[in-house]
Protein: Probable protein kinase UbiB
Amino acid sequence: MTPREFKRLYRITAILLEQGIDELAPARYQSWPARLARRSLFWLNNQTPELKRGTRIRLAFEALGPIFIKFGQMLSTRRDLLPPDIAEELALLQDRVPPFSGQIARQQIEASLGCPIETLFDEFDETPLASASIAQVHTARLKESGREIVIKVIRPDIAPVIDADLRLMQALARLVARWVPQSARLRPIEVVEEYRRTIEGELNLMREAANAIQLRRNFTGSEALYVPEIITEHCREQVLVMERIYGIPVSDIAALEANGTNMKLLAERGVEVFFTQVFRDSFFHADMHPGNIFVSHQHPENPLWIGIDCGIVGTLNREDKRYLAENFLAFFNRDYRRVAELHVESGWVPADTKVDEFEFAIRTVLEPIFEKPLSEISFGHVLLNLFNTARHFNMTVQPQLVLLQKTLLYVEGLGRQLYPQLDLWQTAKPYLEHWMREQVGPKAVWNAIKEKAPFWAEKLPELPELVYETLRQTRHQQRHFDQMFADFRRHSRRQGQARYLLGVGASLLLAGVFLLTQHQYVAWGQFCLASTGVCWLVGWLQTRNN
Structure:
């Protein structure tokens, strides 16, 4: 590691120790080497012994920067894995990260837009509406139309902090890849590289604007999800302008219930939105923590999700999407044999894996969770068990699926909060079955024909010329093939003659040597040796001609 990376590692260690995070570790992890290492850093004492443990963890994540804040955001949705006091504190990381100065925000916006704020906007509020790990949001109005908008601006000097953390993660990933047994299966370097591309994409708000426009187009007219409109003419790399929306935070269960929201339908539509993005569009919002999700005040009996902050999106290729869909359906149908076979076919486990053993291991993990409401199922624990199973069978980590796994955890966490009785299996299975019917069978063939029809129509006038050219090339290739075959036969015949003459020469050589030992046949021996020379010369000439 470089000196800069060591410096960042020391800073991380110092923050964790000054917040007393080491004191929260279970006693079984406080071995004598760990206690000795802690005592050797005697100048880094716990600075907040009076604070509760959840507050100390939240403050540590805030001080460590955006990468750790995002980790805390994900953990906050997993209340089945965390004690309530820690989960409540980490939930504050979703949209209540300490803000930076509104005056600095104004300066950055004006620098990006190249003009004073008053030129384009009215009623700019320097008090942020929300503050997150990478950016914060201010309200204003468009001067030309009076439309309410929000302006998102990147935090100042955040890029160097993220770069230092990413470099440290890459250095640690290289160490793991080099020294940890079986690290090839975990693919730490590829996973960190995938995360680096994701987090760096969040620093470019033009990319977020493009993502939001795509998601909005995908759900135009939908009753399940609404994505706010982006005001593209005022967007820059460090500034994003979009319409202001009013909704109830999805984490505010009391407000949702007071508004008369159909919580069961809301939870089911969350599952629908997730699977639609993944399998219909292959383009999904991959940062669906509660701070980025709202529910419309209008029509509570027909609730509408509102998604913001599209800086992180995930995509899947056709092969991964197909394998995932088949895996989900096989899970829902309890066809564990098919699950095992799919993992082998996709290359996620080695080709020599014993399918019978893999099937039994998957059955052991998954069979107990079926036919239970979400309130009785912990996917966090299920995933841990599946990872242990995967490790036993040398399953390779798929970096392109990391975002999908994280998003699935978010969706489950939201579903658990909204409607714990939600039957995830029965909600998702019909959708996946319908999607699979769309991908195979007569309807899929007809859709493919319709999709390719414009291309075929464009190429149809060229068809006679293409047919003629193909026939002409075929005839030319046939003549070329006949010539090659004739050359091959001639070559083979000459090689056969050469081998024959060389063999005859060898026989004459042996005969000549033998006859020279017999005094009465010396003349015949000399003749044989001379004939040997002639045969070898002719054979050599034949080989050279070939």
Residues 102-311 form a domain with the Transferase(Phosphotransferase); domain 1 fold (CATH 1.10.510). The chain has a mean pLDDT of 80. The chain is about 60% helix and 10% strand.
